[in-house]
Amino acid sequence: xxxxxxxMAVILGNALFVHGGIYDEALGQVPGQSxxxxxxxxxxxxxxxxxxxxxxxxxxxxxxxxxxxxRRGGDRLIDYGSPGGANNTSIVYHNPFNNGNPQQLSxxxxxxxxxxxxxxxxxxxxxxxESPTVVRHVxxxxxVITADTxxxxxxxxxxFNQANNRGEVVTNVRLRGDRVQLEGVLRDGSQHGCQLHxxxxxxxxxxxxxxxxxxxxxxxxxxxxxxRVLAALGKRFQVSVQSMHPGKACxxxxxxxxxxxxxxxxxxxxxxxxxxxxxxxxxxxGPESGHEHPNDSWSNATQFKxxxxxxxxxx
Length: 315
Prior knowledge:
Helices cover 20% and strands 23% of the residues. It has eight helices and 14 strands.
């Protein structure tokens, strides 16, 4: 029943919701069909294709041999949700990060979404530390938010839930008109939150820094309750985070994000800005290509095994 009411892509106003993400190879792709011209058409056709696959499963639930291949109803939908699914065009199974670090969408994808009236993209699938990842796109004002934090506390109590890797960590992501509100609690119990606008000129400091990249490659993720900003740099299996004064973050902004309103005057420079940043390390599950993780038992337990998947009778 969940699959019947679920959607592959949902558009609400100028906001797009998908599980994995949007990328070049997947753009407009619906299995067995010609590419869609815009996001609205793509979402409609992809959701209709999902419904067709479910009807096919209801008619042919058991495996059969067809043209020398093992087939069953809905098997293309099963493939779509697995690694490399739909010839690597799935928007359900997709890792949006580059070696563990957030990155901007390509110009092609950004333009496709902008022409389709999409200003905000929300996804999950790939965990990244203790708070959602925000990536701003200066050309179009596009906001891309990846909100999976399911590996935020691996040492959480598992007495009642063996799969509890989150603990008390939580972030509410709310759409309020043209604004996006993030509000939550980190592993140490501290609170964080910010108000995001597609038009950065409407944002107030220090919230306007969220989604901007710094010169060290890290991305500003959120604002802490003491007014400092939290920046995160992902690399393979870890997310290195540091909190700093917003003024220091402004000094470290990459040129593409250093709009005039974010410039800071050196005459305002204070010792507080230059205090050593508070640093921590959070967990980032390994890339979906299956590289070895330092903890082999954890890696082996979570790696996808194609042979086991293909031989299984139920899923």
